[in-house]
Structures are given as C-alpha cells and as structure tokens.
Specification:
mainly alpha
Length: 102
C-alpha cells in the first residue's frame, strides 16, 4: 500500500513559521509574490513549478533530508517510510517578482 503524500500547504506553512518568517518575508527572500505564498499555503496551488520549489527551499535554508521531503511533497508524492502526517513541517505556482527566474 502506498503512503499518502504530505500536503505541501501545511508543510510550507510549518516551515515558514519555524523559520520565523511572515508570508511577505518569505516571498521577498524567494523572489516570489506574497500572493504566491498565500496560494501555496491555502492549497490553491497544489503542485508548484520546479523552479518555485527550488526558490522556496533556498529561501527557507533547506538542505539534506528536509529539502528532499519538501521537494517530494511539492510534487505531490509520498516519501517511502513516512506517514502522511509527519515529516519536516510537523515538526503550480506562477507568481514571481520581476527578475526572478521560474
């Protein structure tokens, strides 16, 4: 039986809160709009662009297993050996700012 995917919305919200950032601060650090962050955290956008995921992971300072988990959740996939409720946070985004690559 396959594990359910970790929802990106809750994972992103938890990572942002853990980093002590507002949506606006994360958006600025990632070169995205605050609307893009809001849409991701509310689940309006469930599968963001690959470059958006990279920008967010960089802005949150994610590395190693935390980055792998974040990227996997962003693709809507489950991590082997993980339950859908746990992970780093339990601790198609399009809004970019000018000059930020997607």
């Amino acid at each position: 039986m396959t594990e359910p995917p970790v929802p990106l919305a809750g994972l992103l919200r938890g990572l942002r809160a853990k980093a002590g950032l507002t949506q606006e601060e994360l958006a600025e650090a990632a070169g995205l709009t605050s609307r893009a962050i809001s849409d991701l955290e509310r689940g309006v956008v469930a599968v963001p662009h690959k470059d958006t995921v990279r920008l967010l992971a960089d802005a949150l300072g994610l590395g190693g297993g935390a980055r792998v988990e974040f990227e996997t959740a962003a693709r809507g996939r489950a991590l082997p050996g993980r339950s859908g409720a746990g992970g780093v946070a339990a601790s198609r985004c399009t809004g970019t700012r000018q000059g930020a690559s997607r």
